[in-house]
Structure formats: structure tokens, C-alpha cells
Amino acid sequence: MKEIIKYPNCFVCGDKNQFGLQAKFYYDGQRAVSEVIALDKFEGYHGIYHGGIISTILDEVMIKAVLAKNIYVVTAEMTVRLKKPVYTGDKLKFAGWIVHNKGRIYYAEGEVINQSGEICATAAGKYIEAKPDLKNRLLESLE
């Protein structure tokens, strides 16, 4: 699998952001994937991984599915369904994939599965391909 490009200071994937998740994302030819340990520094309630962090990683894995095809998009809309609690210490597998596109709009879905194989959350997102000025700004950020 090939690692997907990243912005070094990104909260989710940046390896130079000391306060971030520092998650690595790979492309298997159809899906963007990442494995993350639910660290307690990102808990909501004691021992429970924050739902906002789960949502953030789901957004990132869906956008990375589009980015893996060298299409630069920004998030327009996202729906997340949190199905089960994620506990700190859990090993999580995130996956995101493109469902279809219509012109500059890309529709993607994603999921997170815990180490027991249970789906903990799902997401659907709508991503808009960046126009040239914004695309140039995005390109300046990426490695």
C-alpha cells in the first residue's frame, strides 16, 4: 500500500504537529485506510474516546480516498453515525472510499472498526474539488 500525501502540520495526519493524532493513511487501490490507537489524551468521558475525534478521523480518511487519486477537495458536508462507544486503548481501523462523483462533487463513505471487528461508527461526506486558486494553496501545504 502507498502512503497518501499529507500536510506536516495537519492535526490528523501531520507528523510535525505535536498536539495532533499523527495518523498515517494508506491507499490500497480502492480505499484509504489508517490504524489508530484511541489514546486517553483524546477522551471525552473517562475511558471513552471523544466522538469528535472519531468524526475528525472519518472526515480525513474520506478526503484521503479522493486525494489518493490526485484530486484536491475540501469538505462540504458530513454525516456521522456513532454506533458503539470506543474505549481508550482500543485499536481502530478506519477506511474511506469514494461512492461516486458528479462534476466537481465527490461523495464518500467511511467506517471505523474496533479490534473485535465491530463497526463503531460510519460516515458519509460530500467533498468539492478545489478551484485553481484554492488548489494552489492546498498544494503549498502538502509534502
Describe this structure in words.
The protein contains 2 helices and 7 strands. By secondary structure, it is of the alpha+beta class. It has one domain (2-141): Roll (Thiol Ester Dehydrase, Chain A). The protein has a 7-stranded antiparallel beta sheet, with helices on one face. It is globular and about 45 Å long. It starts with a strand and ends with a helix. The model has no long low-confidence stretch (mean pLDDT 96).
What is the fold's blueprint, element by element?
Blueprint (H helix, E strand, L loop, with lengths): L1 E2 L22 E2 L4 E6 L13 H17 L5 E10 L8 E12 L2 E9 L5 E11 L2 H10 L2
Antiparallel strand pairs: 1-2, 2-3, 3-5, 4-7, 5-6, 6-7
Range of strand content? 35-45%
Output the helix-strand order. EEEHEEEEH
The biggest beta sheet reads:
7 strands, antiparallel
- What's the name of the CATH homologous superfamily? Hotdog Thioesterase
Q: Which sequence of strands runs across the widest sheet? A: 1-2-3-5-6-7-4
Radius of gyration from the CA trace? 15 Å
CATH-defined fold name: Thiol Ester Dehydrase, Chain A
Shape: globular
Number of domains: 1
| Low-confidence regions | none
- At the first level of CATH, what is the class? Alpha Beta
In whole angstroms, the N-to-C terminal distance is 18 Å
Reported CATH architecture: Roll
Number of DSSP strand runs? 7
Helix content: 10-25%
Number of helices: 2
Average pLDDT for all residues: 96
- Structural class, please? alpha+beta
